Amino acid sequence: MQYNTQREHRVQKKSMSGISCHTCENLGCLMKKNIASDVVSEFTHEKTDLNCKKGQQFIMEGAPVNGLFFILKGKVKVFRTGINGREQIVRFAKEGEIIGHRGFGTAEYYSISAIALEDTILCYFSKNLLQKVLKKDAKFTYDLMLFYANELNKSEAKVKSISQMTVRERVIDTLLYVIRKFGQVNGVINIFLSRKEYADYAGTTEEQVIRVLSALKKENLIIAKGKRIGIPDINLLKKEISEHNFYLDT
């Protein structure tokens, strides 16, 4: 099995079951939620643990679908290629979340790419193994179905936000999304993202993001510590997009 990457670095594979799902602390993980099932428990022993360095790509858009990745530790950027080859960030992901599900099922190729934003540990489950457990465990199948329904809801809400929000509102929505996802530490968002990455998620340009952030800083709605951004009053920033009732919690 090969892992495609645009870089020459290789994803370092550990032995199967190096980190047990039974002792994993990611309580929101789909596998952890179903670990009491004998079928799922047995299945998790066949996973492979992968180490990704910061900036390392472990899924390439258009590559054959081999399985799903669960983030044990770290942060990931999920993106796809847009018009004129421009990067469009679909979402960011953290511990306990699934990567590669958009290609799982009947799809033969991944429709997205994924890169580690920091040193990351992934739990990899092959497509064939997943199909076996889905056929044997109804609760696991049901939980995965609910996960897909929730992801669809988020995707539809984002499309709506891009079509109805102004550039300023989209940048604010992006800031609130990132802080919901990763939180704040020492007064700044607990992840470093470039202005381009904020733009690629918000569906705008880097120049527009810089202008909006500068305006928000002057209005004391955000603070800046070096290149990092902090939000002193989240509720105050939420009011900026309060008329858009599709604000998501996750």
Question: In words, what does this structure look like?
Answer:
This protein has 2 domains: 12-154, Jelly Rolls (Sandwich); 165-241, Orthogonal Bundle (Arc Repressor Mutant, subunit A), CATH 1.10.10.10. The chain has helices at residues 30-33, 38-44, 127-136, 138-164, 167-182, 195-202, 206-218, 234-238; strands at 12-16, 48-52, 57-59, 67-73, 76-81, 87-93, 98-99, 113-116, 120-126, 184-185, 188-189, 223-225, 228-230. The chain is an alpha+beta fold and 250 residues long. A hairpin with a 2-residue loop joins strand 12 (223-225) and strand 13 (228-230). It is built from 8 helices and 13 strands.
Low-confidence stretches: 1-10, 246-250
* Order of adjacent strands in the largest pleated sheet: 1-2-9-4-7
Strand content: 15-25%
The N- to C-terminal Cα distance equals 33 Å
Fourth CATH level, the homologous superfamily of the largest domain: Jelly Rolls
Radius of gyration: 19 Å
| Count of strand segments | 13
Q: List the total number of helices.
A: 8
- What is the third-level CATH name, the topology of the largest domain? Jelly Rolls
Output the CATH class name of the largest domain: Mainly Beta
Mean pLDDT: 86
Describe the protein's topology.
Blueprint lengths: L11 E5 L13 H4 L4 H7 L3 E5 L4 E3 L7 E7 L2 E6 L5 E7 L4 E2 L13 E4 L3 E7 H10 L1 H27 L2 H16 L1 E2 L2 E2 L5 H8 L3 H13 L4 E3 L2 E3 L3 H5 L12
Antiparallel strand pairs: 1-2, 2-9, 3-8, 4-7, 4-9, 5-6, 5-8, 10-11, 12-13
Helix pairs in contact: 5-6, 6-7
Produce a short descriptive summary.
This protein is 36% helix and 22% strand. The protein starts with 11 loop residues before the first strand and ends in a 12-residue tail after the last helix. It contains 8 helices and 13 strands.
